[in-house]
Fold this protein.
Amino acid sequence: MSGEARKIRLIMDLRRSGVTDTRVLSAIERVPRELFVPEPFADQAYENTALPIGQGQTISQPLVVALMSQALEVGDRMKVLEIGTGSGYQAVVLAKLCRRVYTVERYKPLLAEAERRFRALHVHNITSIAGDGARGWPEQAPFDRILVTAAATSLPLTLLDQLAEGGVMVLPVGAQGGEQEVLRIRKKDGQQQTERLFPVRFVPLVSGELPE
Ligand code: SAH
């Protein structure tokens, strides 16, 4: 099967699994996922699975990227913070949906590769930094939307602080290696409203010193 045919099959699969937002589907269609995975996995880029990207980390399953992007309700004027750049794939999908993406990654080598991809694909509305994403990006706050792509054991309040009034944050929360759940949190009149969306399995959000 050709790459194009595999991509069409994936998009149909996503629609069947509840991805109805046409902006999100079109963004997924336009981002070449094969450029975000190590060479040996390139032929699996349009399978609906997570794949290893080095440093024990993974590029998320396309369905999870699509459902989380949809849940975030991103508008084209918005400023979005992503925690856990990883391969950079989710950041580029978000970059197609909003005005600017700020993304934080704790592994410098992963970040360097992701930044190389942003340049190669001429995606110019992503600003990235190496650091502990649990601290957010206070200098750039507030954000209209926040997406966390590593699992915290509880809601990171520092991130909630950096969410704008009327903003939405989507994140996986739960025990490491156990059942985690994607939550959507809306900040309204200074209060937070939480919805439980779907179960997932993410690598942990790790705090503390940066690895080399
Ligand atoms: N969004 C990525 C997938 C992320 S996997 C993609 O599209 O490919 C989760 C990523 O979160 C990993 O790269 C991991 O190194 C990173 N991470 C874990 N804890 C972090 C933290 N405290 N701050 C920033 N990044 C973190």
